[in-house]
């Protein structure tokens, strides 16, 4: 199953970007310049991930050439990483007679999965929320925005699943779960994200800007909770507090395990607080 991950990532990324481009053209053709501008603006945060990808290429001993810089400028850096990772695995399999070296493959999986997750949270998630609101509150018959939102939901869910699988495989003795378990995990992520985004879109349709109050309360509670846990991913105090605030914003929509060790108690607290807030 792991051998299919690069191809699946590339297919999902191609489908999402194609639908995104069609959505931009759709708003431009129909003269909806406000939604056109907001959809374009969702692309901007993705350049943070592209800059990080360039730095990682440089750290891996690949000096950024003009062609590589152009690819990242066009936001195709993850395509480059996915394709390179795919061909590297094939070369490893050919050299070792059918069994690639697990450590090297795992680290390449990790680089790609982390970058995919960052891009999905910074770029795909805002686009998903925007298109979901447009479909729910503005243009219920909009087929193109609806398809784009659905593909973004699938792509974001798969990014979360890939990150979870990578975190699981880092633990000693853990093997890649079967395809049925991965499918169930994907459906669970899609259901959780879809219901939260839909709930926020419906709330925004009924109560307009009051949705920011509900989201703000959730963000503050999650941020304070993360700060209280003193996450040790970032060493500097100011940086880990900022990191906790950023992750707290992500927790409005989904839970991402950013701390080592068993997470069942943290997941219980997260769902207890989130369910209470969204039921207000």
From TrEMBL:
PANTHER family listed in its UniProt record: XK-RELATED PROTEIN, XK-RELATED PROTEIN 5
One of the Pfam families matching this protein, by short name: XK-related
Annotated family: Belongs to the XK family.
UniProt keyword Transmembrane helix present: yes
Protein name as it appears in the record: XK-related protein
Transmembrane segments: 7-29, 35-54, 142-166, 178-203, 209-228, 240-258
Matching InterPro entries: XK-rel, XK-related_scramblase
Keyword terms: Cell membrane, Membrane, Transmembrane, Transmembrane helix
Primary location: membrane
Location of the protein in the cell: Cell membrane; Membrane
Organism for this UniProt entry: Bucorvus abyssinicus (Northern ground-hornbill)
Cellular component GO terms held in the UniProt record: plasma membrane
Membrane topology, record value: Multi-pass membrane protein
């Amino acid at each position: 199953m792991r051998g299919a991950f690069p191809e699946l990532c590339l297919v999902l990324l191609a489908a999402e970007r194609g639908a995104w481009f069609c959505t931009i053209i759709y708003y431009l053709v129909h003269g909806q310049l406000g939604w056109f501008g907001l959809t374009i603006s969702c692309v901007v945060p993705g350049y943070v991930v592209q800059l990080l990808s360039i730095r990682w290429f440089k750290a891996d001993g690949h000096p950024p050439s003009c062609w590589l810089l152009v690819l990242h400028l066009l936001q195709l850096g993850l395509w480059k990483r996915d394709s390179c990772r795919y061909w590297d695995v094939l070369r490893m399999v050919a050299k070792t007679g059918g069994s690639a070296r697990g450590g090297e493959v795992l680290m390449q999986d990790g680089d790609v999965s982390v970058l995919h997750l960052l891009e999905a949270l910074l770029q795909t998630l805002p686009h998903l929320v925007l298109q979901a609101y447009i479909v729910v509150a503005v243009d219920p018959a909009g087929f193109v925005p609806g398809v784009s939102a659905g593909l973004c939901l699938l792509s974001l869910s798969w990014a979360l699943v890939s990150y979870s699988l990578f975190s699981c495989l880092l633990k000693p003795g853990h093997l890649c779960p079967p395809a049925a378990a991965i499918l169930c995990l994907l459906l669970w992520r899609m259901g959780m994200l879809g219901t939260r985004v839909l709930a926020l879109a419906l709330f925004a349709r009924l109560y307009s800007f009051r949705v920011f109050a509900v989201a703000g309360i959730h963000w503050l509670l999650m941020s304070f909770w993360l700060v209280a846990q003193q996450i040790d991913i970032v060493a500097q105090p100011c940086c880990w507090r900022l990191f906790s605030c950023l992750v707290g914003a992500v927790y409005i929509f989904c839970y991402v395990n950013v701390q080592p060790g068993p997470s069942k108690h943290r997941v219980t607290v997260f769902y207890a607080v989130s369910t209470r807030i969204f039921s207000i």
